[in-house]
TrEMBL record:
Coiled coil feature spans: none
UniProt keyword list: Repeat
Signal peptide: none
SUPFAM superfamilies found in the cross-reference section: ARM repeat (SSF48371)
Name this protein carries in UniProt: PUM-HD domain-containing protein
Amino acid sequence: MYSHIDPFGNYFCQKLLDKCTDEQRTRIVHITSPHLAQAALNIHGTRAVQRLIETISTPEQIDSVIHALNPSVTALIKNLNGNHVIQKCLHYLSKEEKNQFIYDAICTNCVEVASHKHGCCVLQRCFDYATFKQKDQLVKEISKHALVLVQGPFGNYVVQYVLDLGLVTYSENINQKFLGHICSLSSQKFSSNVIEKTSLDYADDDQREQLSECIRPFLTAIRYTPHGKRIYNKTTSIYHKSNANFKPKATNDSLLITQ
């Protein structure tokens, strides 16, 4: 255990894992598994744990590592060192969906993970290694909390990432959460990026028209706000393409506050 987290000993552990037999590696896993999650949080220990994940191969070894890390997935994801261990698991345990424990933990703590600076990055990597079933699982949970996530400095990137996948069913689920909140979302720093760059760009024609109609009554109000003016330009551009006689509807600025 102490060799794992030692500034020099962790290099010895990494080399040992490279050279040992499967039987010896199994013994190492059994000895270190009670301390694996704690070691993963350590700046030196994380390197040894990552190498362990790279080298395990038997079902017994894999199951032992999963059992050791499973209770601490969320804490590891949010940690500067631990999140790299989870990313290794996503990659090296993707065969036969052995990484499913990570997807389950993230969906249980979706807002907490997606709202964290390390968590939002790990969540995006989850999509890179996900099966179709796992993607659907993530999107279902992200869509459920999209209205909260889109207003945060990190959560908005997660929502954008889902919309960037370009699947109509995914964008439709998320855009439905925005209806009724378009004015306030268009005026906020983080959510305005999503409304401008993704919802209006990647929505299908029906969704785009629906969103544009929701925005149109508030165009005059958001036109002069720091973030809303971009939405104004985007929306008026859409309308000008489809209606040469388009004029923004007048609105009371107080609507911007009460929406």
